[in-house]
Amino acid sequence: MRVVRRKSNTCLNLGMAHTFPDDLVAAQRDWYAVYQQLADRVGGPAQTTTLRRRLNRLSVQVSTHPYWTTHGAQAPAARIALRQLARDEGPHS
């Protein structure tokens, strides 16, 4: 799959341009950061529980964002583009 970043929060995926709201991109970036912390096993059991809860909240925030209600049949491609954009940008500061 070829994803090209055009400008902030916009990417071209399979010939389709997707522009994402800042809060949606931030939530997806945060999801990857928390997932990586869990994979690295940062902290003890209490920290793991906290990270898992945060990951669950971010999953809900991303998957139920109002942006998805406006994209119908294009939503699956847009979700892939969002994930790629968030991975490419990495954690925000």
Question: Can you characterise this structure?
Answer:
The radius of gyration is 14 Å and the shape is elongated. 18% of the residues are buried. Strands 1-2-3 form a 3-stranded antiparallel β-sheet, covered by helices on one side. 56% of the residues lie in helices and 14% in strands. By secondary structure, it is an alpha+beta fold. Helix 1 runs antiparallel to helix 2 and helix 1 packs across helix 3. The protein has one domain. The longest helix has 19 residues. Strand 2 and strand 3 form a beta hairpin. The N terminus is likely disordered.
Q: What's the overall average pLDDT, rounded? A: 82
Within the largest sheet, what's the order of strands?
Answer: 1-2-3
Terminal-residue CA separation = 28 Å
Beta-strand proportion: 5-15%
Please indicate the count of domains.
1
Low-confidence stretches: 1-7
| Main sheet summary | 3 strands, antiparallel
> Order of SSEs, N→C?
EEEHHH
- The oligomeric status of these chains comes to single chain
Shape: elongated
Tell me the Rg in angstroms.
14 Å
- SSE-based structural type: alpha+beta
Count of alpha/pi helices: 3
Task: Offer a concise description of the structure.
This protein has 93 residues and is an alpha+beta fold. It has helices at 22-39, 45-63, 75-89; strands spanning 3-7, 10-13, 16-19.
List keywords for this structure.
single chain, 3-stranded antiparallel β-sheet, disordered N terminus
